[in-house]
Model the fold of this input.
Amino acid sequence: MNDWLNNALFGWYPYVALTVFLLGSLLRFDHSQYTWRTGSSQLLRRRQLMWGSNLFHVGILAIFGGHLVGLLTPIVIFDTLGISHTFKQLLAMSVGGVAGIACWIGIALLAHRRLFDARIRNTSSFSDIAVLLLLWAQLTLGLATIFVSANHLDGHEMVKFMIWAQGILTLQPGVAALIADVNPIFKLHLLLGMTIFLVFPFTRLVHVWSAPVWYLGRKGYQIVRTTRSVTARTTVAAVPQAALGPARAGQPQPALGDD
Done:
């Protein structure tokens, strides 16, 4: 690959993909909120959906977290902690391999369900099917890189990708040259990954931004339904505790409206 093409694909294209990813998501949320959904089809082939969805989501979260930590953590931190490049690469290959296989099986189940069930296929948009196939292809490439990585366990190639990713985010010029000579399968994996970021705002993947993590910090409350009128509840609530009689004094009282 000549220098100009390498620089265009791995020096400029990442910024195009990230810009469309962020601005596109924001504009879609601002102007097309009613399309901000997953388009669920869980009423059809529910069991296959459950297995496929669970395997896919658990696997993809592990893979995303591993890539995020593995690529964006400064190398000096690993060196300070005494984590060698060989150990880090073996860890990435083993954990990433298990998560990748689980995710691959999950996405295969979801793709089969959507492509080969006529009812689901008829309710699926082009982007629904396209993004599944893109993710499946990306997972296949990612698993294939494990066999290539096994040929250089010293972690030298891995360090190149770390410096490249951190250089892109810190706007360092010329970082594309670092990966000019890596195995083509790694380059395909990177390109398809950036393309997924590029098309992200135009697909069902935008529901990732709506993950209800705020529920974790929400204070608990209880909803009590009642058939009593508001006037009756107000009247009972206004009765002093002493008027309830000595037989009920000191005993826990039933919740108002708890029929």
